[in-house]
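Ops channel
N.P.: pipeline sanity check, posting one input/output pair.
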């Protein structure tokens, strides 16, 4: 490691002020700090109060995403073979999945990385390490059949308008990956949602949420799901159509365990999301009847394994930049995300997946939640001092 450090320092002299490669210092700094721990302290948000730096934190999140990535590759190949009526072989499924998933990830990092480097060079600051996570999160929220040019457009919008216009990593109000995903949803709804997302050789299959939303009044939503080939088990394991990295609740739970052990993610936010979802789903379940939408009759625990709730609660809602920072605020923030997710899913049949909008909506209110929490603490302390 000492040899590597000495060589990097020699090369680094070419990127110092007044030297030929001065403008490209952010590229050198990104490689240097990725390979070695920098001996610097942060001067602006986000701050990590630990022995590890931000790059190590982001790498931990990427490691936690490995189960979702592996499941994304396998399930994509599995669903395509199922659509074509082919026999399933492990390596055949993996090969097809790699052909579909890897180009999406590569285009995401190339397009988004271009904007990251451009803004870093223009502003003469280091390349923000947050894109390590933003890029893979964004890619995993997309369907496997999306055109690659739309992948590039979406991540470009997410990086530029979701982060860079606010000042870069640590300054953004909204989760950049979700901003890019939301842009694609509203700009190109035909390729990002509905029954045409999983179209392979003319074969189309609706996602579980789409089936639940389309179930007519008076019919059993659970029965409709089972007739479509969906049950609680295959939705939990993730062998269903949907966004490539969001289908497996089990993979998300494995990633969550790693994030909680390493203390990267806030368990309060995740617990709040689950509590809010079960509360609202339970209320709708009690209100079910022949005059209500059939979606009201879906058992609350089924909501946990449908759509992108698990992925959003574990990897999106816990974003330390756009989430609440106070402990009480995290409970409130997470609870409202879970509540809004079910509210949007059930009440709005045209948009059965509410997790993305719920998180973006609460991103906007996270600072306000923290403000009132802090103000409440100040008032309580003032009252104690008066006694």
């Amino acid at each position: 490691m000492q040899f590597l450090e000495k060589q990097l320092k020699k090369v680094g002299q070419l990127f110092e002020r007044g030297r030929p490669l001065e403008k490209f210092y952010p590229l050198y700094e990104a490689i240097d700090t990725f390979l070695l721990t920098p001996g610097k302290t942060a001067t602006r948000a986000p701050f990590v109060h630990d022995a590890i730096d931000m790059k190590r934190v982001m790498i931990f999140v990427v490691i936690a995403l490995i189960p979702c990535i592996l499941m994304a590759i396998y399930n994509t190949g599995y669903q395509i073979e199922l659509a074509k009526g082919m026999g399933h072989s492990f390596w055949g499924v993996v090969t097809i999945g790699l052909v579909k998933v890897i180009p999406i990830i590569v285009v995401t990092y190339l397009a988004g990385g271009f904007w990251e480097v451009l803004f870093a060079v223009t502003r003469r600051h280091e390349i923000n390490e947050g894109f390590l996570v933003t890029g893979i999160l964004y890619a995993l929220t997309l369907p496997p059949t999306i055109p690659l040019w739309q992948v590039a457009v979406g991540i470009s919008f997410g990086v530029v308008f979701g982060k860079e216009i606010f000042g870069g990593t640590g300054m953004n109000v909204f989760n950049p990956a979700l901003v890019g995903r939301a842009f694609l949803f509203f700009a190109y709804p035909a390729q990002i949602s509905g029954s045409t997302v999983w179209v392979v050789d003319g074969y189309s299959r609706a996602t579980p949420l789409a089936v639940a939303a389309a179930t007519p009044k008076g019919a059993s939503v659970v029965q409709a799901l089972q007739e479509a080939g969906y049950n609680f088990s295959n939705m939990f394991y993730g062998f269903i159509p949907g966004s490539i990295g969001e289908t497996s609740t089990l993979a998300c739970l494995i990633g969550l365990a790693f994030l909680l052990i390493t203390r990267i993610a806030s368990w309060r936010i995740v617990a709040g999301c689950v509590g809010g979802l079960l509360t609202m789903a339970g209320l709708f379940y009690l209100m079910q009847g022949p005059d209500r939408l059939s979606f009201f009759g879906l058992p609350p625990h089924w909501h946990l394994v449908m759509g992108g709730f698990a992925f959003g609660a574990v990897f999106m809602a816990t974003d330390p930049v756009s989430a609440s920072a106070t402990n009480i605020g995290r409970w409130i923030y997470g609870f409202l995300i879970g509540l809004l997710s079910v509210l949007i899913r059930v009440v709005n049949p045209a948009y059965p997946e509410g997790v993305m909008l719920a998180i973006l909506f609460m991103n906007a209110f996270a600072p306000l939640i923290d403000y009132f929490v802090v103000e409440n603490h100040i008032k309580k302390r003032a009252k104690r001092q008066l006694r």
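N.P.: looks fine end to end. Strands lie at 199-200, 203-204.
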